[in-house]
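Predict the 3D structure for this chain.
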Amino acid sequence: MATIRPRRGTSHCNGSGNDLLRQLTGRVVGQPQAANQIVPYIQMHQAGLAPEDRPVGVFLLLGPTGTGKTRTVEALAEALHGNEKQLLKVDCGEFQMEHEVAKLIGAPPGYLGHRETPPLLTQQKLSSVVSESCDLALVLFDEIEKAAPSMVRLLMGVLDKATLRLGDNTSVRFDRTMIFLTSNLGAREMQKEIQPDFGFEALAPRSAPHAAPYTTGKLDRIGMGAVRRKFPPEFVNRIDAVITYQPLGAAALAQIVDQQITVLERHIQNRLGERAFEIRVSRAVRQFLLRRGTSSEYGARELKRIILRHLTQLLAAMTANGEIPPGAIVQAEMDPDGEELVLTVTA
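Done. Predicted structure below.
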């Protein structure tokens, strides 16, 4: 059992737990259970009562693609550090072969490529993703199921003792980090549970995912079953919380469309400065982006690309051609056929 005592040195993260909970639930749409499970670990860190010689929290985020797993970590980085990019991300798809794991810790002295292979996980890099407002480093291992078995074994020491020994025999401390592992394990089975493709259940009308608690519990069991089949028990037992993300309903997807349009508006203001303009997006356009950019299978994963292709690129072309004067209002509507966007500029 981990000993809980105040940590050596001071721990700080500005903001109350309620504020952080409100920020996370506002930025990660349709997944309140994620914020509810993550925020208490930050409060333990703020109070100095997090377990000693362990990461502040280790979380496995499961669920179908496009439901907000990676977005949760980015939103947390934004809430804690003011920048959604202020985290250390490891794409486990780049570490599928056993020999590639050396890129994480660096080759030992005397081995070929020792000086040419700087480790990805160093104390300096952890320190670079903290801020004056919070001393917690966020580390994301994306798609952990793709990692080579040697990488999983390497992580066991990090998850248990908050220590990683590098190739040059130096140690990296992870006791002021929150570690997130994302995975699509069980996602296909979850999708079949939500939308059966055969039998009588396929013919029956299904309610929204959030309206059926029995379905939510079934998704949790599907996810944990897939995790236990993939990873050894000693690895699973080092995870503090397994969070299963639910498929997003129509209302949540529509809210995400609104969020992404707000992000585009802010991007225009920040990048163009005095040349900035206002955009107004009609309900018909929002419904078009919703249809094209979201689906039950892929969630909201395609939404950014659809907005980029159908709205941002049009705005960029008109701006580059001098068709949008500074301070103008650009109204986005659908054409009569409902297939293309039409932009109208009012000076």
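Confidence is low (pLDDT under 50) at residues 1-8, 198-214.
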